[in-house]
Amino acid sequence: MFKKILIANRGEIALRLIRACRELGIRTVAVHSTADATALHVRFADEAVCIGPPPSRESYLNIPAILSAAEITRADAIHPGYGFLSENADFAEVCENCKIRFIGPRPAMLRLMGNKVRAREAAKEAGIPLLPGSAGVLKGPAEAQAEADRIGYPVILKAAAGGGGRGMKIVRGRDAVTAAFATASAEAASAFGNGDMYVERYVERPRHVEIQIVADEHGKVIHLGERECSVQRRHQKLIEESPSPAVSPQLRQRMGEVSVRAMERIGYNNLGTIEYLLDERGEFYFMEMNTRIQVEHPVTEAVTGVDLVREQILLASGEPLSRKQEDVQLRGAAIEARVNAEDPVTFAPWPGKITGYSVPGGYGVRVDSAAYENYTVLPFYDSLLAKVIVHAEDRPLAIARLQRALGEYVIEGIRTNIPFHRTALADDAFTSGHYDTRLVERLLASEVGTRRLRQAIEETP
Ligand code: MV4
């Protein structure tokens, strides 16, 4: 087992990782920017190293500085968390070359899943259902049009180097293909340094349902059910739940079996998440694969009782899977609300000092956060302030419990999206479970939705 892990991250996930290390008896090294000198992850870790100025590029993304910190402190592994360097194959490779274990999948897996065209091909070969689409990278606008004609409209153009919703264009008719291809490819080239594109049939009202994979270094793979992540705005998830109200036990078993079989064939290792589009007919299609611990992992922990970060560290050290598939049972319902420091109406980031602070608690409530009274939310990093996760016997009680917990949360001095959450959780589409990826858009476009949101803002202390 590792003796000392460097935590290459900040905020709530850095605390989450440090807590798991503490319980495993592993020493920790925090790294931090100058702006984060007083952050909780710095205080909670056994040691801390300053790695640069506030901008991420010069600190949390600064590979030489992080590796130097690992070498100086003699860390034998690095946990990258999510975001930052977590899916950077070059970083993972440099770690391994320096004899520092990267806690995550092998660099080749990060590379494979980082290229959406190659990931799609690998998924197909491994038996995962795909939407009809182009075989590889499109050679130009003419091929894009020919392929779109063959597939049938609407189609969606996606960037091979994109992901998470960046570099996509929906095309509804033949005459729009060539122009859309030119724009999307140019945007991708400038954003990712790679203009490669592919095309597939567009699903109009999909749900985002993802399967949690756990794989050891010895070829054994299990899944921990699904997470429903359809409550998103501009590809930022806001509410996640497990189980999904749209997934029956039979569908769960099919999605789980297909996913596990595919990961066995690919030779995947460590934690992973396969994202699927679920259409109105209940058919599921590969979207992309995430090779990191995810923000929303606690809902899976709640319903399965598996400590995913502990498991991830044990797997990286070579431990075999501690459970068989038949030992995994889903119990009750869990929901997570991402509390962001942002305006609840415009979603504009709202950094600043928290002048008054009181955290919810009680039965079935978990709050993962690095915030505290007098903490200043910094403008340099993402606006995630806290995750409020509830677990209950069933979904209606989980919704009531999350409303209760959010009602207890006092955050003064800055704006947060808590009023938005309270409105979304009360929305008929959400409470009935009959919602898709357009829920937020619909809510903000409707008269009732905006009225209720204004009211929720009034009622927030
Ligand atoms: C799609 C799609 C419909 N059809 N692909 C968005 C994020 C990226 N992972 C892929 N995305 C989508 N791909 C096809 N063929 C709709 C989306 C999409 C979406 C997916 C999941 C959650 C929210 C979304 C919001 C808009 C579009």
Description:
By secondary structure, the protein is of the alpha+beta class. It has three domains: 4-103, Rossmann fold, CATH 3.40.50.20; 132-201, Dna Ligase, domain 1 (2-Layer Sandwich), CATH 3.30.1490.20; 207-459, ATP-grasp fold, B domain (D-amino Acid Aminotransferase, Chain A, domain 1, 2-Layer Sandwich). The protein is 36% helix and 26% strand. It has an eight-stranded antiparallel sheet, sandwiched between helices. It has a five-stranded parallel sheet with strand order 3-2-1-4-5. α1 (11-24) links the parallel β1 (4-7) and β2. α13 packs across α16 and α15 (439-445) packs across α16. The longest helix has 18 residues, at 249-266. It starts with a strand and ends with a helix. The mean pLDDT is 97. The protein binds ligand MV4. Ligand MV4 binds next to β8 and β13.
